[in-house]
Structure formats: C-alpha cells, structure tokens
C-alpha cells in the first residue's frame, strides 16, 4: 500500500507538470508508519515499553476482549469517557462502585468485574444488548464468521474464488469498477513458485518424492550460488511445508 500510494502520488505530480521520478518504498518503513501513533505516545511519555501495560495493547481493562458464556468473545474499545460510561451501563455495572476508569491501581478489579459480567451471557445476547449503542463493543468473529456479518453481506465485502472466500477488490470506483481474480491469489502464488522449481501442477505437496526433488534442487542452486534461491525456498516452503533454512 505504501508503494501504491507513492506511485499514485508520482503520477499525480507528472500530470501537474512535474518530472517523473523513482518511488523508493520499503516494508520496514511501512511498518514504522503503522506504528506512528505509538512513537508519538512514547515521545510524549505516554507509552510504557512493558508489554500489556498501555492503552492500546490490552493493558487497560476497557480495551480488551472477553470470553462469553458460550465460549465466544466480545471485543471492547471504550476509550473515551462517554463511550466508557455507556459500556459500563450496558453490562450492568453502573452502580457497582467500580474504581475510576484511569486509576491503574483499580484496573485488576475492573478487569475481574468485566470478565465476570461477560461470562453471564452468550455472545449473541451481548450483541443484542450492544446493538446500536456507542459503547464501542463488538462481537469477536472467526475468519469463517466474518464474511457473514451483516455489514459485510450488505456491502458484498467478500467474494468466492475457486471455492475459497477472499476479500473483494477495494476501494471501489464508480466509473472504473475493479474486476476480481479468477483464481485464489495464495493458490496461484504457490503454483508459480512450484513451476519455477520444476514441479508440475498435479504433484502433491506432501509427497516424499516432491520433498526429495526440492531438496536436490536447493542443494544444486546453493552450489551455484543462485541469486533466486532464497525467494524460491520462501515461496515453495509455504506450498509443501519444506523448512526454509537455506541462505545464500
């Protein structure tokens, strides 16, 4: 996404009379950008580098997930005072004499009370209670359940490709709608990796013969100091569960 944004920005610059240029995008810088909020909190003295002791790393009892009576989960993100007050009211603890929201010494008590409350009802019951509220609480869904959520269904956020469910193309454009791929991306990538190493599509990834052939190819490429070895091993190890331990 970082590279895509850079390309779009460069094209926009050219259209406005600017010169063409090289777009330099690295994954490590993309990861750093995703953590910009945390870097800001750290600089201002509002981030503790101890694990699970901060606002957004489940350190607080009002930013976490809780198990329900039927073994499912509800996620809570009631950070602001207004949303937190509604959250406490919805779980029936408004008059329970709870510690103050930002009293760190009281967080263990809050977590214990919240956990006990969520265990008293099923996930569907809690969903009904929080439906339409501003308490910042939502059901915890599995990957199989998420595409069936009402909002995803309404927006058709997921599509079925080659027998598998995957996200639909996004964002959407009114004049130039995106087309969906004909084959699941992960499956296609695996076959590309397989064919680069000389395997056929009908070769079973778990077969001993296939693993043996892969091992011989890796050794041969290592002997030649093949520049594509690391990438080949990475791509193909995901396809046939072969350990990607070789380096160049």
Structural overview:
- By secondary structure, the chain is mostly helical.
- Among the domains are: 2-34, no CATH class; 185-240, no CATH class.
- Helix content is 43%, strand content 9%.
- It is built from 10 helices and 5 strands, in the order αααββαααβαββααα.
- It has helices at 2-15, 27-34, 36-43, 81-90, 107-118, 123-130, 150-155, 185-196, 208-223, 229-240, and strands at 63-67, 73-77, 137-140, 158-161, 164-167.
- The chain has a 3-stranded antiparallel sheet with strand order 1-2-3, covered by helices on one side. Strands 4-5 form a two-stranded antiparallel sheet.
- A hairpin with a 5-residue loop joins β1 (63-67) and β2.
- α8 crosses α10 (229-240).
- The longest helix is centred in the C-terminal third of the chain and has 16 residues, at 208-223.
- It is extended, with a radius of gyration of 25 Å.
